[in-house]
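In response to reviewer comment 3 from the previous cycle, which asked for concrete evidence that the modeling workflow produces usable outputs, we include below a single protein chain processed end to end. The sequence was submitted unchanged, and the resulting structure tokens are shown without manual editing.
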Amino acid sequence: MTDDVATGIGATLRQAREAQGRAPEDVAAALRARVTQLHALENDDFQVFGGDVYAKGFIKSCALELGLDPAPLVEAYRQQYATDDVRVSTLISEPASMTRTPRTSPPAWLAWVLVAIVVVAGVAFLSQLGAGSRSPETATPSEDVASPPPSSAEEETGDEAGDADDDRDADDADESDDADDADDADEADEADEADEADIDHVELVLAFEETSWMRVEVDGAMVLEETVPAGETLPFEAEQEVQIRFGNAGGVIAELNGEDLGTQGGRGEVVDVVFTPDGAEQV
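The workflow returned the following structure tokens.
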């Protein structure tokens, strides 16, 4: 433990508060926290905060409010009390930049299945097209009956029929290409829908551009209620929803399942927002 906190984390904060002549209610109000939380902090009772990230965040906020350097206090907590809470990333060392989570790519077998479907559909379409355009066979004249030579009018009629067949074949080819393009577009849409269907939980990251008080409930359980300073980031995960009350909605940027949602309100505005796999909604 460093010399700055030789008497203990809670005792150091209490001595600084008393030296300034401030009551616990005054400091708790400035932190937008409960008086019971401040008393627990001054008595080194960190279990009430529900995890290392929240306890360290409260220590840091209280130290800054009392004009103390929070680094020695946070380091003393890390050495003596930290239990490596894995629910969220550390509140102290994470940068303010938000990292976008890449969308998971579909498995390779799905691409082969889609290709096979397109090929089978194309072959079936061409087979039906060929069967529809085949003309019935004409009976061949007997060998002992002499066929008269074709007249010039008949030759012209034959040429026109040949041209008509060529045009019809070209039209059929164009229709086949259009059908293949439509199949490809449908398969691409189905792949996109499959990607979207994979997101069935909540991955939320908050970046604090300004200091903001906040209260967080994850799947109905309270996990955080404190003032978070500017420059911090906080990630949260939930099966169904994360409900947050922002004390300064314009100072916090939200990213939900890799999508940047921006701020959830105006500067200094108190806003309640529910984040679900389908998106964010103010309540």
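The helical segments are 9-19, 24-31, 35-42, 52-65, 70-80, 108-133, 152-197. We consider this sufficient to address the reviewer's concern, and the full set will be provided in the supplementary archive.
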